Amino acid sequence: xxxxxxxxRTALSLAASGVPVLPLRRGKVPFGNCRTCTGNSCGxxxxxxxxxxxxxxxxxxxxxxxxxxPAVIASPPWTAAWRQAVCVGYHPGGAGLTVVDLDNADxxxxxxxxxxTTRVVPTTRGEHWIYQGTxxxxxxxxxxxDIKSTMSYARxxxxxxxxxxxxxxxxxxxxVKEEPAPFLPTPQVVTVPSRTGNxxxxxxxxxxxxxxxxxxxQRITEARSAVHTTVYRTFLAVLSTHGRCGCLTDxxxxxxxxxxxxxxxxxxxxxxxxxxxxxxxxV
Length: 283
Prior knowledge:
The protein has helices at 6-16, 70-73, 76-84, 105-114, 169-174, 206-221, 227-242, 250-262, 267-281; strands spanning 21-25, 29-30, 87-90, 97-102, 119-122, 127-132, 138-142, 145-148, 154-155, 165-166. It is of the alpha+beta class. The strands form 2 sheets. Strands 4, 5, 6, 7, 8 and 10 form a 6-stranded mixed β-sheet that branches. The chain has a 4-stranded antiparallel β-sheet with strand order 2-1-3-9. The chain is elongated and about 65 Å long. The chain starts with 5 loop residues before the first helix and ends with a helix. Mean pLDDT is 81; it is low at 178-197.
């Protein structure tokens, strides 16, 4: 087989393990639709929730073209695309996966503090953290971080290292959007009940918890827009990591509330965001 078809060999290997694949051209983007499917005039599948080939024989509709069918992958219309492909893409959601795309060192540092360890694949500028489970895809959930799962594609960069963990609430919380609400600008210090479990934290040391709270404070402080949403997502992330084991104290929550109020959040909105986050996570 010609070396130019190397991506095809990789694609067939992935498909054999049930991963839906598609060729990516220069720029690491999908091939454009064929003439029949231009503008989705064919009634194609731009809004699908699962991957699958378009009815036309070409490689159309970006991520929705991804397939694990070797007969399609190696068919003449596709082999022409593989000859021009620079790499292999895959549909994470179609394989039951979610990719947390960490695009820089700061994003990686945050993930190491806030997310459970899982399979890691190095990228050109950062890392892909891969979890078992699906969710909706979302770009720029925080600086340098994208979520790729359903209705999205990721570049295949190798098997990576480590064991694939179950998709945690902390990742799901990143994609949660809350409608902003009006708020009062006067900062105040508020203490609220925070303990949601009993006993010592079994999965974080005190120093680790302190670092997590400090990073949460930094995230809120550095918010340049959508402060209300940033506060809510930060509360979700903190609770998803520490909210079930009882390691959070009133002092920790007071710190989070104080920094949120310094950004203009009212005591009521801080309390509401905390309560809503607890409800969303069931803690």
